[in-house]
Amino acid sequence: MSGVEIAIEAEGLTKSFGARKVVDNLTMRVERGRIHGFLGPNGSGKTTTIRMLCGLLTPDSGRGSCLGYDIRTQQNEIKRRVGYMTQRFSLYADLSIRENLEFVARIYGLARPVEAARAALIRLGLEKRAEQLAGELSGGWKQRLALAACILPGPALLLLDEPTAGVDPKARRDFWDEIHSLAAQGLTVLVSTHYMDEAERCHEIAYIADGRLLAQGTIAEIVARSGLSTYIVTGPDLGALAARLKATEGVDMVAPFGMALHVAGRDAARLAEIVRAFSENAPQQWMRGEPSLEDVFIDLMTHREARA
Ligand SMILES: Nc1ncnc2c1ncn2[C@@H]1O[C@H](COP(=O)(O)OP(=O)(O)OP(=O)(O)O)[C@@H](O)[C@H]1O
Predict the structure, then answer these.
(1) Is the CB of 44 under 6 A from ligand 1?
(2) Could you tell me which residues are beta bridge partners of residue 230?
(3) Among 13, 14, 24, 46, residue to substitute to test ligand 1 (most atoms within 8 Å of Cβ)
(4) Which of 302, 207, 222, 225 is CA-nearest to residue 263?
(5) CB neighbour class for 76 (10 Å; exposed up to 12, middle 13-18, buried from 19)
């Protein structure tokens, strides 16, 4: 035994809808007990990939296994062991939290639905609100209830599709604490998100655009592999400076971050020359910096658009 258990392994997954290739030759691997983030622009194929991995959609080509089962031929085995939280809240607004969970437990055919619902209530800190109607909950509590429903049948893998979209920062943080505690108990989590702070909470991430995998690994690996040399500029007139920098060959990314501007390029020597020229007799201060994950994604996106 190598000690590493693989929860998801997929190779060359491809899926088209009509003439449009939505997932293109995607290869990925997720270890058990890991939180794997899925990032990419809207419509890049994240949901479609998640659906193929959990047996809801059959790929046109490629192969893969999820929890040791073949994603093409053993879809029922996979569905039984996966909790899938979709983008839409799909519980009953006019049932209480407790009633919703008991109902879900019965749908799954659990032997002791009332006890199972109570255990899920406790596990996600919902006991005090048990009798509250689901429709009256705030976004954060709704998501927590949806997560409780997902873990009710004891899945080995959670697929969470933008679980915190539109949820306030405190509730998002609490939700992520729950995800980490579930992962610590051995659950594998595949989660799609548009939030950079959430990406940074994942053990590994995959970035996809136009159905293609553009980057995969830990944050440190992705940042290191980007090969971006980065500077942080502060001072006056950053808007005008940004416009000039964007028009300069050798500058691959310019993005404002609060009161500063992040400027990055792949050719470190060329960028250093540009920085020298721009900083001479200029009112702004230039400092070497580390690229952030967002810098890397903005750069990946910009170059994807340039290639398209
Ligand atoms: N069943 C379907 N039939 C036709 N087109 C589809 C179907 N499902 C998804 N698509 C299209 O495939 C593309 C990828 O969609 P997908 O939902 O996988 O992207 P996504 O990365 O999850 O996007 P988002 O971040 O907006 O949720 C989109 O253009 C979408 O309109």
Answers:
(1) yes
(2) 264, 289
(3) 46
(4) 302
(5) exposed
Task: List, in sequence order, every residue forming a beta bridge with 35; answer none if it has no partner.
Answer: 189
DSSP annotation string for 123-150: HTT-GGGTTSBGGGS-HHHHHHHHHHHH
Structure pTM?
0.87
Question: Over 60: is that where the pLDDT of 222 sits?
Answer: yes
- The residue contributing the CA closest to ligand 1 atom 9 is 48
- The residue assigned the tokens 């900083």 is 279
Average pLDDT over residues 213-229: 92
162 to 28, 46, 127: CA distances (angstroms) = 19, 10, 25
HSE-up (13 A, CA, CB side) for residue 160: 32
Closest of 18, 75, 8 to residue 38, by C-alpha = 8
Give the Cα separation of 177 and 201 in Å (integer).
10
Sorted by where each starts, the structural domains of the chain and their CATH numbers stand as 6-222 (3.40.50.300), 226-307 (3.30.70.250)
